[in-house]
Write a structure and sequence with these properties.
This protein is α/β, with parallel strands linked by helices. It is built from 13 helices and eight strands. The chain folds into two domains: about 160 residues, NAD(P)-binding Rossmann-like Domain (Rossmann fold); about 120 residues, N-(1-d-carboxylethyl)-l-norvaline Dehydrogenase, domain 2, CATH 1.10.1040. About 55% of the residues lie in helices and about 15% in strands.
Length: about 290
Amino acid sequence: MAEMRAVGVLGLGNMGSALAGRLLRRFKVIAHDPDPRCAARAAAMGVEVLGSLDAVVAGVDTVVLSLPRPAVSLEIVKRLSGLWGPGGAVIETSTITPEDAREAAAICHERGIAYVDAAILSGVKSVEEGTTSLLIGGDPASTPTIQPVLDALTSHQRHLGGVGTGMAAKVVNNAVAHAVYVVLGEAVAMGASAGLSLATVVELLSDPEAGLLRPLTHRIGERLRDGNFDGGMAVEAARKDSELALRFAQFAGIPLFAIQAAHSVYEIAVAQGMARSDYSVIATLWDTWMAAEH
């Protein structure tokens, strides 16, 4: 009977352990983590935990990285490039920037090592259950050893483009999630000050026609996509509503941060002659600002 293929995992924190658990269903997993507690937990799962990165790399052709910081990932990639020759493959699941991913890929490619970034969209529980989505940058098909490892983690995979696009998608997603949560915190406080229950605010904003989803599905997904800024709700009307929110919060003594900052964009849009266009047009301001930077 053929020996089961081994896959390496570097980093056995909560997420790394979850990844190792998924991989154990199809592969022998050889791993390393300097934290003895993480190492012991993984060993109890059936992972073969070794005392060094060098030892792991000696026994596998593919490693999955699950590391705490971009600088750590880059340092590990540099060490790998000094240990491996052509034929190795790195799957980066740690959260890093697109620039970090491209730098790591360049280091790998100099040595003939394949590299893909496979950002994890969800949390640990979804990874354990195999229901998470992977946001993939790079070409797994270019190296036969990579795709079976991705398939062992989850069947939900989005292949987005070149190296770095997976991480770009995750950084964008997380930035929106964290910024929107601040807006929602402000909204909940405003609603509570006027007697609206938390359940009422949640029900209201969950409506596809309400203020949380419609700016994405209609204004970004339709109007901005088509460059259609005629009709609709004008920038000047949106600015007026924003001013009402600021007055509401000031009267109720509610500190605003995200909503206050967003109001400035509407002021700028009006000053630049966009007052009568649908407020989806304000997203085009970034085109102007980015062009000015270059």
